[in-house]
UniProtKB/TrEMBL annotation, chains A, B, C:
Keywords: Acyltransferase, Lipid A biosynthesis, Lipid biosynthesis, Lipid metabolism, Repeat, Transferase. Pfam families: Hexapep (PF00132), LpxD (PF04613). The gene is lpxD. This is UDP-3-O-acylglucosamine N-acyltransferase. Belongs to the transferase hexapeptide repeat family. LpxD subfamily. Residues 29-94 form the UDP-3-O-[3-hydroxymyristoyl] glucosamine N-acyltransferase non-repeat region domain. Homotrimer. The active site is at H245. It comes from Halomonas salifodinae.
Amino acid sequence: MTHAHTPAFTLEELAERLGATLIGDGRRRVSGLATLSEAGPEDITFLANRAYLKYLPETRAAAVLLHPGQAEECPTACLTLENPYLGYAALSRLFDPLIGRQAPGTHPTAVVADGVVLGRDVEIGPQAVIEAGVELGDGVVVGPGSVIGADTRIGAGSRLHANVTVCHGVVIGERAILHSGCVIGGDGFGFAHDGGRWHKIAQLGGVVLGDDVEVGSCSSIDRGALGDTLIGNDVKIDSQVQIAHNVQIGDHSALAGCVGIAGSTKVGQHCLLGGGVGLSGHLTICDGVQVTGMSLVTNSIHEPGVYSSGTGAMSNAQWRKNAVRFKQLDALAKRLARLEKAQESR
Amino acid sequence: MTHAHTPAFTLEELAERLGATLIGDGRRRVSGLATLSEAGPEDITFLANRAYLKYLPETRAAAVLLHPGQAEECPTACLTLENPYLGYAALSRLFDPLIGRQAPGTHPTAVVADGVVLGRDVEIGPQAVIEAGVELGDGVVVGPGSVIGADTRIGAGSRLHANVTVCHGVVIGERAILHSGCVIGGDGFGFAHDGGRWHKIAQLGGVVLGDDVEVGSCSSIDRGALGDTLIGNDVKIDSQVQIAHNVQIGDHSALAGCVGIAGSTKVGQHCLLGGGVGLSGHLTICDGVQVTGMSLVTNSIHEPGVYSSGTGAMSNAQWRKNAVRFKQLDALAKRLARLEKAQESR
Amino acid sequence: MTHAHTPAFTLEELAERLGATLIGDGRRRVSGLATLSEAGPEDITFLANRAYLKYLPETRAAAVLLHPGQAEECPTACLTLENPYLGYAALSRLFDPLIGRQAPGTHPTAVVADGVVLGRDVEIGPQAVIEAGVELGDGVVVGPGSVIGADTRIGAGSRLHANVTVCHGVVIGERAILHSGCVIGGDGFGFAHDGGRWHKIAQLGGVVLGDDVEVGSCSSIDRGALGDTLIGNDVKIDSQVQIAHNVQIGDHSALAGCVGIAGSTKVGQHCLLGGGVGLSGHLTICDGVQVTGMSLVTNSIHEPGVYSSGTGAMSNAQWRKNAVRFKQLDALAKRLARLEKAQESR
């Protein structure tokens, strides 16, 4: 990818911005961030995982961000920090080429309804549509082709990438990041069944996203049936995730790709849902629960901890033999109990 | 969310529209619909599930829609109906703020090809694109940024929300609701394999949706390879669903979020597929089948009923011990049989 | 669907284009392609699977494409080829109505930044947005409402359908096909955890797609954290697929619908992932691996072959009895071992 717009920093500047201790020549300039094994003489790199320590002696980087305990092994300049992975996060944002590209103003092809309230330095991209009653906070960026439905409010510093859809009556906090193709506030899936057919229940609730929420590409968060679907502060949602109506997600929880959560389930704070996890509807998952990838949760969870289901892949030949036995499992257990009884009675 | 555009009704009007029996002052006016525990004095609420009966005595609602058998316990005005959940569905549609917002006409930024046939009161939103040969029935709404490919026909009363894509040569019945980000008529996944590489099979079929079909946010229904992909009348499809080429879904079936159906599988009428269910290709699922969440169906089903697979989540420590035994299951079964034989021979 | 724009060919022309041997009247004209049982007298059809041989005697088609060994049983004109399924693929592309519809030029409503480099015969549809620094090769088609981010390069002959999003700094090879709603280059899911909250790691890598890649509707391929996410040549990706940051997919691999691949996993060449398969992060899957539908792979795979996990659906009553035993599996195995020991000691 392009590095054309990435900025350059002296090591001294970086140490100051990160609150790191500098060892080496502070006037040296770096213009990129790369991994230990791929960094060149214009780059800064980082060491946050001992598994990569083997690459440290041969790094060609101008400088390495690492833990003070590893500074002695570093063949070049270094910035030391107690949590170098957090330092990497900060560095990555300094080198983000999107930062310098913001261009406040409304593109002439965007359609903005009368009476929309725009904060300072709002950027509205080409072909975007902002319906009546919308309020956008300071510095909000609306990407090309994105649509914001009537009466929606988006807090300061939030960014909608291209082709995002936020439906009517949604509330989004500050510093949200919504990736392309995601949809916030589509109808929940609600029908009354009568006479052999479905009768739609209009979804009259909304969606409320807290501050610092991120939603991945092509994810969907449905609006509530009556009350709102509620996503807490600092909730991070990956791509291809589905959150049904009236779900609640507590602050600081993270949902990996392809997670699906059925209606009215409440997930606590600081929960981690692995990729492809499914939660049934109307459950309560307490704070501090971690569910491993592709597990199905059909009951509420009241104790923090790690939960799992399923069986990992094996060779198809081995799997066939075992999977067929799964269907006999209850029968096998009964035969086992019979044998035990026979033995006891002897 | 906003209530700015929601209408107000007298209880008398509501009783009449719902065919309900009114007990109380028919001139009282309500302007909102809310749950039993959250409704205020301007709202009507409903009781459709005995689990919520405990909230009835303290409700602050102006009126409650409920079964005649519970009218005596109601502390306020009530509307009685044999099926109060169906009544709630009807009420919800009366309070839907989208209803009053329709604004027939074509937005000046929309691009509509020459010769497109528009029924009466069609609304085409900003930045929408309607290609050549399209026909839209009376009252069709095309949301902002939606694209309708060449030669597609959409029946009267259908609504496409924002950023919907309907590809060329698709037929959609009346009163369809297509949510944002869904794609109807993308190519099916078909390739011939030869010489170590893939050779594309052009997908020449279309997609036909019956009347009263709803498709959720970010769902995709692929076009057929030669014949059409067929979705029956009154089929309800949730968000993040994938329907492959030449699938057929019978009338009145409902598919929850994240369902995936592989090519050429036929699902009967009145089927219910739970969230995340996967159906292999070329299967036949008869009428009246229900499959529970995240089950994998690899064989045809010929008897109505409920079907399941998988194992629910447990603590990771417990799961690890059991999951490892799954790989030994065939061996365990053989050891059990050996013991039984030994016992018999004694 | 419409056949209005489909071309007509003589059998002689078709035989020549396919390199097939013609038996029958070469001047006969066909204007459509259909299945053996549905083809009419204006159509050509094909027989590639012995299961359909029973339909051959009664076909009403003008001609049948089939293996030379079956020519004798064909009641009408035929074109013979060693690999008739490959011949069907070639035929399907000849009858593709999209082929004749290309209309080079930039629609007046498209927004194309200054300095964008366009090859010959590029078509940019209505409401599309092309940001600064983009390069589009000869014959590239950008569908209505699609957005191409800054500094992205797309190779000759590639087609983006409607409402596709390609983010900044992405590289796409020649002859790619990107279906509606897909997103290439959204942020990967990366955060440092500190002080009980998440700190975003800017995703500075890009996405590189090789030549002849196809990506289905609503699929997402995330950009790399530092290096690029790499998709090889001739990789075919179905709808609703999620590919996380820094994943690598080898040439000629195919991923069915709803597959999810977690970060940094490397999939080899000629791999086949069934629908709904999940791969954990940081794995290595060697060349020639096939994983059956909805399997979860949590360990690297070093031997080519077929792999599976999970258990197929059964009746819910049967399933309940067996699934509850799964939680006792380790205990059952221990009880079995105890019985065996008791027997041995006798």
